[in-house]
Write a structure and sequence with these properties.
With about 140 residues, the chain is mainly beta. It has a single domain, classed as Sandwich (Immunoglobulin-like), CATH 2.60.40.1890. The protein is about 10% helix and about 55% strand. The protein is built from two helices and eleven strands. Strands 1, 2, 3, 4, 5, 6, 7, 8, 9, 10 and 11 form an eleven-stranded mixed beta sheet that branches. A hairpin with a 6-residue loop joins strand 2 and strand 3. The longest helix is centred in the last third of the chain and has 9 residues. It is globular and about 40 Å long.
Length: about 140
């Protein structure tokens, strides 16, 4: 029983991870699409730098466009940029900031992987491979 408890606390991180300079993306997951046209992506951005990092946009070869979105007042709306605080982190999660992949170039299935290129105002481009998970699994990955 002690062994089972010890192993239970050693779960590996689910989702894509990438690091470049002061920026790290972790827990990057794409929720299995509810439609063949769009999908939502979630992740955690960490900025270890001495200045805020501003995410200006995201590109994916698997989608015609990727929009930065926020949910405010119960409405989902595109936003022009997202700021990651100095020596801080920002969680892109359901019901708050997140990414919307629009115009998927082919249907995505659970277990597929999608490439996201995150473009920051500093000129940094952080590329991460993002697994496609069931919605519940994607949400659970963000809670780890």
């Amino acid at each position: 029983m002690v062994v089972a408890l010890a192993l239970g606390g050693c779960r590996s991180e689910v989702g894509g991870r990438a690091h470049l300079g002061d920026l790290t993306v972790s827990h990057a997951v794409l929720s299995g699409p509810a439609s063949s046209a769009q999908a939502s992506a979630f992740l955690v951005l960490e900025n270890r730098g001495s200045a805020p990092a501003t995410l200006l946009g995201v590109h994916s070869p698997e989608a015609e466009s990727v929009q930065l979105h926020n949910v405010a007042g119960g409405r989902m709306e595109p936003v022009p940029q997202i700021e990651v605080p100095t020596r801080g982190h920002l969680r892109l999660i359901p019901g708050q900031y997140h990414l919307m992949l629009e115009g998927l170039v082919h249907p995505l299935a659970i277990g597929d992987s999608v490439t996201l290129e995150l473009r920051f105002s500093s000129g940094t481009v952080l590329t991460v491979q993002v697994p496609v998970l069931r919605y519940g699994d994607a949400v659970n990955a963000l809670a780890e």
